[in-house]
Design brief:
By secondary structure, this protein is α+β, with helices and mostly antiparallel strands. It has one domain (about 1-220). It has helices at about 15-20, 25-30, 50, 70, 85-90, 100-130, 170-180, 210-215, and strands at about 1-5, 5-15, 60-65, 130-135, 195-200, 220. The strands form two sheets. Strands 2-3-5-4 form a four-stranded antiparallel sheet, with helices on both faces. It has a two-stranded antiparallel ribbon with strand order 1-6. It is globular and about 50 Å long. The structure holds iron/sulfur cluster (SF4). The site of iron/sulfur cluster has 13 residues, from loops. Iron/sulfur cluster binds near residues 40, 146 and 155.
């Protein structure tokens, strides 16, 4: 099954983006995550968002949305073993079969797949737009195990980027303020849509048409060989 990814972009000033900055609150969420201090893209850092984003003035917020209704209609035919996402491996492989809910597995697969695609697309955008940097949706999973866990430097420092959450932004506030969206999520159920939020920071105002042109055509593939 191939599902189209709908992309929306909205350009805001850096000041408007920082209205969703809740460094202390978001850090408490990060501290509850198993990636905390174990991934070079995750806190704790020896810098903060103000310093990291100092060279930039504008933020193009990029929202991805995927309707999940088509997945709902085939969810009983899916097999957990066909979803080998890094998130699944990190968080679910120790769980017994009866504890693993297919909706959660598909949601994790979708998030990781879109995160990986968007991370690469943001690097492409950085190549096209002078003085820009991408903030992808989530932690880096380029290596099977982040080298930070072995006390080593990042293997791909030129591709290492930080998510909005890692920099202390409350992403739910960004959805609400700029897209009038409140995300609902219930364990064991597919949400109506899979959504991710990324940002491309730029020094000058960017061309939204150029950004949409580079991002268009993204799809999510679900277990094609089984369906
Ligand atoms: S590229 Fe590898 S070492 Fe660097 S942050 Fe990502 S997972 Fe960690």
């Amino acid at each position: 099954m191939i599902l189209p990814v709908k992309i929306r972009v909205k350009q805001v000033s850096k000041e408007e983006l920082f209205e969703a900055h809740r460094k202390e609150e978001v850090l408490t969420y990060c501290q509850r995550c198993s990636n905390y201090e174990k991934n070079h893209s995750c806190p704790d850092f020896d810098f903060d968002a103000v310093r990291y984003l100092e060279p930039y003035e504008h933020a193009t917020v990029i929202l991805t949305e995927i309707e999940t209704q088509p997945i709902q209609s085939i969810i009983n035919q899916l097999d957990a073993l066909n979803f080998q996402s890094r998130v699944f491996n990190n968080y679910m492989k120790e769980e017994s079969d009866e504890k693993i809910d297919m909706s959660d597995i598909v949601s994790m697969h979708a998030f990781e797949d879109i995160k990986n695609q968007m991370s690469d697309q943001l690097l492409l955008l950085e190549d096209q737009i002078d003085q820009s940097i991408g903030l992808p949706p989530g932690s880096c999973t380029r290596c099977a195990v982040c080298l930070k866990q072995e006390g080593l430097a990042c293997r791909f420092p030129e591709m290492l980027r930080y998510s909005l959450e890692a920099l202390g932004f409350l992403v739910s506030e960004i959805y609400k303020a700029h897209f009038d969206m409140e995300l609902g999520w219930a364990k064991g159920e597919l949400p109506k849509q899979f959504c991710t939020c990324s940002v491309l920071m730029t020094k000058e105002k960017s061309d939204e048409t150029l950004i949409l042109g580079i991002l268009e055509g993204m799809v999510l593939r679900i277990n094609e060989e089984v369906i």
